[in-house]
Write a structure and sequence with these properties.
Strand content: 25-35%
Strand order of the largest sheet: 4-3-7-6-5-9
Radius of gyration: 14 Å
Mean pLDDT: 88
Structural class: alpha+beta
Low-confidence stretches: none
Number of helices: 3
Distance between the termini: 29 Å
CATH superfamily: PK beta-barrel domain-like
Order of helices and strands: EEEHEEEHHEEE
Number of strands: 9
Number of domains: 1
Shape: globular
Largest sheet: 6 strands, mixed
């Protein structure tokens, strides 16, 4: 994981250069359309004393109700996306973090997102409904 100021998103694929976009991610042999982009609440990370990136989600948000985006289209900057389902934590993630975290992140582990348009997102971009 590395922090980027900007990232190019590819419709139906995800972040250009990401391991899942390149089919080299841990679960690439189990394709799922909703693995294109993941979001996590910065407020949840703060509460659990976790730095951005610790949960291995692609985008850390602030002031956004991620659950309200499930089943809805929204934009990140100018890029149209759709919230698909919660991104529940797993034992693999717990092993990466190195401490018991499953219970604390249950139903708060983030949002799985489909990317609907090509475009670029950047730190500070607004997330807006439809």
């Amino acid at each position: 994981m590395r922090s980027l100021e900007r990232a190019s998103l590819l419709a139906g694929i995800g972040i250009d250069g990401d391991r899942y976009a390149d089919d080299s991610g841990r679960w690439s042999d189990h394709p799922a359309g909703d693995r294109q982009l993941t979001l996590v609440s910065g407020e949840v990370l703060d509460e659990l004393n976790l730095p951005p990136g610790a949960t291995r989600r692609n985008v850390t948000t602030s002031g956004v109700d991620l659950d309200a985006l499930i089943g809805r289209e929204f934009t990140i900057g100018a890029v149209r996306c759709r919230g698909e389902r919660t991104c529940e934590p797993c034992t693999y993630l717990e092993g990466m973090i190195g401490r018991p975290i499953l219970r604390d992140l249950a139903h708060r582990g983030g949002l799985r997102v489909s990317v609907l348009d090509d475009g670029e997102i950047a730190i500070g971009d607004r997330i807006s409904p439809g």
